[in-house]
Design brief:
The structure is a homodimer. By secondary structure, the first copy, chain A, is of the alpha/beta class. Chain A contains eight helices and ten strands. In chain A, the strands form three sheets. Chain A has a six-stranded parallel β-sheet, with helices on both faces. In chain A, strands 3-4 form a two-stranded antiparallel sheet. Chain A has a two-stranded parallel ribbon with strand order 8-9. Chains A and B meet through helix 2, strand 2, strand 4 and helix 6 of A and helix 2, strand 2, strand 4 and helix 6 of B.
C-alpha cells in the first residue's frame, strides 16, 4: 500500500462535505467568517456546503426577542437553507454558530439539538463558534470532552453541559485529532467573533488540509495568527477559572 | 436653536437607512463583516437595513464562472434581497461589496451601476469594500475623488475609473466629511477583507456615531485598531505608487 505524505495525504483524508446548522438570530459573522476562509479552500479542494434548518424558509439574523431590540431597529439579513434537518446529506464537518438565538425558548431548538446528537457519531469534525458550544453541550456530544465558549455568556453556557470539561483560559480547544473528531470551540467575549474565528478557522484548515494551505491562506489574509490557544486574557477579565478537571489544550 | 453636542448630536445627524447592493458571486465577508459590527450599532441606534438586487430572488456567493471553480466545488451561500433596484427606499448609506462577481460581463451589472449613479447624490455615505470601488468608479461617482481598492486587482480596478484619484498606499480613503459624503474604500489584497473591514467599519462608526460608540464596539471586539490609514505595506509589495495627483488621506 502506498504511503502518501504532505499535500497528497491531506487531499486523500481531507473532509469534503461541510454543513452549517442554522437557527433564527444566529450571529452572522460566526457563519460567514469561517465560510469566507473555507471559500478559499474550495479553490484548492473539491468541497461542498449544505446549509441546514428546520424548514427551507430563509433564516434571519435579526433579533427575535423584543427585549434584544429595544430601539426597534430593523437590521438583519436572511440566508437560504439548502436542506432541512430531515433531508441533509451525510456530512464530514458540522459548524454550529452562536448568537442570541441559542437562547430561544424550548421547543424551538429541539430539531437542531436532535440533529447534532444524531449526526455527531458520523462526523469527522465538529466546529462550534461562540455560544454554539452550548447547543452541542445540550445535545450531550461534548460530555467528557474539553471545550470552551463565549466568556461573557460563560455561566449560562456551561450550565448547558455539566459533564463537559469546560476550559476557561483558552482561545480555542481541540479534543481529538484530525482523523477522529476535532472539537474547536471559539472562546471569545461578546463581539469578538470576527477575530477569534480567524485563528480557529486557520487552525482547522491547517489540521485538515496541511500547513501549506493554512500558511497560504493566512498570508493571503495578511493575518498574524495567534498560535497559543491559551493566550487568553479574557478569562481573568471575567473572573473565570477552569472547572471539571479541565486542562488547557495546546 | 439649541446646540447639541456629543452622543446627542450624533443621534440627531447619524444615518438610519442602510442599504447593501447585491450581485452574484459577492464576497461574503465584505457584506457580513461590516454588518456584524453595524448590528451592534443597532442596539444603540434605531437603524434599518435593506438588501438590494436586480430581482427578489436569493443572491449567491458562489463563483459564477467555471474558470474560477476548476475543481467544481459547490461552496457558497445565498442571501435574500428585501428590495430591487427599482423598489429600494431612500438610503443614507450604501455599501458596495467586492468579489469576483464585480467582473461579470456586461450587461449583468448595468442595473446595479445605474442604481449607484442614480442614488449617489442623495446618500450621506458611500462605503465600498475591496473591488466594490470598481463598481462605484464605473458609475462615475468617484470621478475627481480620492479612493482606493484591492491591490492585487489594482490594475483592472483603476482602469474602471480613469478620472478617480486612486491612492495606492492606503488602508482606506475618506473623501468628504461626515455631514456630506464619506468615501471609504477598503484597500486590501486578496482575502484581506476580514481584517481591513474591521478598521474601516469602526472608522466609519466613529465618524458618524462618535468616538464613544466606536471605542465601545472596538473594545468589545477586543480589536487593536489601525489608526493610520497609510500604514499599508501591500502597495510596495505589489509595486504600486499613487497616480492622478493623489495624496494619502488621513
Amino acid at each position: 500500500m502506498p504511503v502518501f505524505t504532505g499535500a497528497l495525504a491531506h487531499a486523500l483524508v481531507a473532509p469534503t462535505r461541510y454543513g452549517v446548522a442554522l437557527f433564527p438570530d444566529f450571529e452572522a459573522i460566526d457563519i460567514f467568517g469561517p465560510l469566507d476562509a473555507l471559500n478559499a479552500v474550495a479553490y484548492s479542494y473539491q468541497i461542498n456546503l449544505t446549509l441546514i434548518s428546520t424548514t427551507l424558509d430563509p433564516v434571519t439574523a435579526k433579533p427575535q426577542s423584543a427585549a434584544m431590540n429595544l430601539l426597534n431597529s430593523s437590521f438583519g439579513e436572511s440566508i437560504v437553507p439548502t436542506h432541512t434537518f430531515d433531508t441533509a446529506p451525510e456530512l464530514d464537518v458540522l459548524l454550529i454558530p452562536g448568537g442570541l438565538g441559542t437562547r430561544a425558548p424550548p421547543p424551538q431548538l429541539d430539531p437542531l439539538i436532535a440533529f447534532i446528537k444524531e449526526r455527531f457519531p458520523t462526523l469527522k469534525h465538529l466546529i462550534t463558534v461562540c455560544t454554539g458550544a452550548g447547543l452541542a453541550a445540550r445535545a450531550g456530544v461534548l460530555d467528557g470532552k474539553y471545550a470552551t465558549a463565549n466568556k461573557k455568556a460563560w455561566a449560562s453556557t456551561i450550565a448547558w453541559g455539566p459533564k463537559v470539561r469546560w476550559v476557561a483560559q483558552a482561545r480555542w480547544v481541540q479534543d481529538g485529532n484530525v482523523l477522529s473528531i476535532i472539537f474547536i470551540n471559539v472562546n471569545e467575549s461578546h463581539l469578538n467573533k470576527c477575530f477569534r474565528w480567524s485563528d480557529i478557522t486557520i487552525a482547522f484548515i491547517e489540521a485538515v488540509y496541511g500547513n501549506m494551505t493554512a500558511t497560504s491562506i493566512a498570508n493571503g489574509m495578511e493575518y498574524v495568527r495567534h498560535l497559543n490557544s491559551t493566550d487568553d486574557p479574557f478569562a481573568a477579565l471575567n473572573g473565570l477559572t477552569n472547572v471539571n478537571n479541565s486542562t488547557n489544550q495546546k
